Structures are given as structure tokens and as C-alpha cells.
Amino acid sequence: MGRFIKFNAVGLLGFAVQMGVLAILVDSCRWPYVWATLTAVETAVLHNFLWHRRWTWRDRAARSLRGFLKQLARFHLLNGSTSLLGNAVTVALLVESFHLSVLTAGALAVGVCTVANFLWAHLVVFRSQPSLEAD
Asked: What is the mean pLDDT of the chain?
């Protein structure tokens, strides 16, 4: 349960990063909302990976560059794709079908992806295996 709390604390910071980037890109830079959403999510994914590695799963962090890159690749493949696809689809659906604001839709999309991302990170990305310690 403690790890899930840490996961959500990092996620809240990542959420702030994502919403901040999204607001800047949509409101100030006038980017199309789909591209802004994808960029904001990618920024949050990188932010979250680094904090999860340093804090949430610090006991499972790879100790070599090769191990780090493997964890980053797994995180991007699983959490990143879940976040990118989940956010893009959910935001588009909520904006186009329900006429919600992009920021409201983005906030709801994050909630949709949270549990899946925790499970991916805990069971696959930062899995506890002796082979990770050697990486």
C-alpha cells in the first residue's frame, strides 16, 4: 500500500506537469489539442519515470546504464503507451462527444489510466528480480 501511495504522489506531480504543459501549449501556443495532449503526456511520463525510479521503486532501480535504459524502455512501452493512447482517446472522446474543456478532459483521462499504469510499473517495469540487480 505504501508503494501505491508513493505512486500516486508522483502521479499528482506528474499530473501538475501534464496539465501545465497542456495549458501552455493549448492556450498560449495555440497547438491543436491532440498534439498538445500527446506532448504533455510524454513530458509527464518522463517526469514520472525518473521520480518512480528515484523514490517509489528505489529498491528496484537498475544500477547500470543498460539496466536504466531497459527500465525506461519498459516504462515507455507499457506506461507511456497506456498514458498516450488512453489520454488521446479519452480526451478526444470527451471533447468531441461531451464538449468538455480540454483541461477537464485531460484531468479525467489521467484518472482512467492510473490503476493500469501502477500495475504495469509494479509488475513489469520495476519488477523485483535478481537479474535487475545485476543490470
From this structure: 89
pLDDT at 130: 58
The tens digit of pLDDT for each residue in 68-114 reads: 999 999 998 888 888 888 888 999 999 999 999 998 998 898 888 88
Written in H, E and C, the secondary structure of the chain is: CHHHHHHHHHHHHHHHHHHHHHHHHHHHCCCCHHHHHHHHHHHHHHHHHHHHHHHHCHHHCCCCHHHHHHHHHHHHHHHHHHHHHHHHHHHHHHHHHHCCCHHHHHHHHHHHHHHHHHHHHHHHHCCCCHHHHHC
Comparison of pLDDT for 31 and 88, the residue scoring more: 31
Euclidean distance between CA atoms 19 and 21, whole angstroms: 6
Q: How far is CA 21 from the centre of its chain?
A: 13
Asked if 44 and 114 touch (Cβ cutoff 8 Å), the reply is no
CA dihedral 19, 21, 26, 27 (to 10 degrees): 90
Helix axes 81-98, 102-120, angle to 10 degrees: 150
